[in-house]
Every structure is written in C-alpha cells, then in structure tokens.
Amino acid sequence: MGKYFVGIVIFGVIFYIISIFNRLVVTKNRYINAFSQIDVQLKRRYDLIPSLVEVAKRYMEHEQSTLERVIAARNGASKQLREAHNNPADPTAIRQMSEAENTLRGAISHFSMVMENYPQIKADTTMQNLQEELATTENKIAFARQFYNDSVMEYNIYRQSFPQTLFATLFGHTSDAAMIEFEDAKEIQNPPKMAF
C-alpha cells in the first residue's frame, strides 16, 4: 500500500512539473505571437511615413531639418524593429525598440506642429488620405501594443510565481519578457496626432 502511495505522489509531482513546462511554453508563444501583430502594424506605419514626407516637401521647402529628422527617426525605429523581430524574447531588443519608437513619436509630433504653419497642406487630397491611413494604423498599433503587454504580464507573473520560479530557469526561461513602454503614460492612451 505504501509503495502505491509513493508511486502516486511521484507521478503527481512529475505531472505537475510537466504542466509548468507546458504553461511556460504556451505563455511565451502567446506574447511572441502578440509581438508579430505589432511588427506588422509598425512596418505599415514605417511604409507610410516616407510618402507623408514626400508630399510635405512640396509645401515645406524651408523645413528640411524637420523632414530629415522624421526620416532619420523612422529609419532608426525600423532598424530596431528588425532587431526585435529577429528575437522578440530578447528584453534588450524590445527596450531599444521602445526607445526608438519614442524618438519617432517625438519627431512626428514636432512635424505635426510645424505643418500647422502650412494650411495649404490641408487641401492636398493625397495628404488627407495618408493622414487617414496613418490614423487607422496608429489605432491598430495601440490595440496590438496593449495585447502584447497583457500577454507579457501574464508570462512574467506566471514565471515569477512559486513554484514555477524554481523550474523556469531550468526550462530555459531565464528572464522576464519586456513590455513596450513609453516615457509619457499619455502616449499609450493617445496615438501621435497628425493634425492637418
């Protein structure tokens, strides 16, 4: 009788450890999948920005430094996204991508303020279409970012909880996943404004 009891306990412990391994894999795959949704939307935005700048050049001949700043920030953010895309489980790559995104958001915000001095841009239908596409993309980015951060939180909480924390490193889950954060909390609630 005692041997059966010991066998059942050992079987239960093994089954529980296997369930911890599987849950870590599921939650990690969930946040990596959530990142891929952000990846698609950010690439879409990076594709729109050069078109926006090209149209603005027609009206903003004396604002070359502003336009160049937007393109440089866009290129920097695109580069960091590629780094994060290659390894979305790397917290450093995600943090560097977030910093590059903050720089880009600042450049776009400044660009929008400067464009306020050029009311003729408002009448340009190409610019209006780009603005609408960009606003739609920003909404999708905000939604995807929230889903990603929720998925990361679920993974981190599970990984840090007891007794999972005893096995997480053993199973290759050596560090927490990084959230996509912004310097200003209001930025999370509101996508960059593109006023025309």
Provide a quick synopsis of the model.
By secondary structure, this protein is an all-alpha fold.
How would you characterize this protein structure?
With 196 residues, this protein is mainly alpha-helical. Helix content is 77%, strand content 0%. The protein contains 6 helices and no strands. Residues 187-191 have low confidence and may be disordered.
Mean pLDDT: 88
Radius of gyration: 23 Å
Approximately how much helix is present in the residues? over 70%
Largest sheet: none
What is the overall number of helices?
6
Strand content: under 5%
* Total number of strands: 0
Order of helices and strands: HHHHHH
Low-pLDDT runs? 187-191
The secondary structure category is mainly alpha
Sum up the overall morphology in one term. rod-shaped
N-to-C CA distance: 80 Å
